[in-house]
Write a structure and sequence with these properties.
- The chain is mainly alpha-helical.
- The chain folds into two domains: 68 residues, Arc Repressor Mutant, subunit A (Orthogonal Bundle), CATH 1.10.10.10; 56 residues.
- The chain has six helices and no strands.
- It is elongated and about 65 Å long.
């Protein structure tokens, strides 16, 4: 469940502005304020079933935006690799081993390739 909450949190951070006001409200109450479906229903004056289906639609929308745009995946990839580069820089500072510089060089080239491919694949109409 924690993994699911984390995933929804990351998707929500990127794409919440694309959700309806009601979807944003449901996601906030359920995932961030940790209210039950019934508590949300009581607070909003709707049925528990309406909350359930509203949350499902919001989750599906968030996942659809990610499948189309890939911003969370892109951010995660960049963050992971930048942390790796920092680690190799620390190792180089400690050891002076030029192999660490080669690793940094490769990671930077990979990041540039990833960014180029990401931008190329996200062009509208394949321009």
């Amino acid at each position: 469940m924690l993994e699911r909450v984390t995933k929804i949190g990351m998707l929500f951070e990127q794409y919440s502005s694309l959700l309806t006001d009601r979807q944003r409200e449901l996601v906030k109450l359920y995932y961030f304020e940790d209210l039950s479906l019934q508590e949300i229903a009581d607070e909003l004056g709707i049925t528990r079933q309406a909350v359930f289906f509203g949350l499902k639609r919001a989750q599906k929308a968030l996942e659809g935006y990610e499948n189309s745009l890939g911003l969370v995946e892109r951010f995660s990839y960049l963050k992971k690799n930048l942390r790796g580069i920092i680690g190799h820089l620390d190792n180089f500072r400690d050891s002076g081993d030029s192999v660490e510089l080669d690793k940094i060089d490769k990671m930077l080239v990979d990041l540039l390739d990833f960014e180029f491919n990401f931008r190329d694949s996200s062009k509208i109409g394949g321009e």
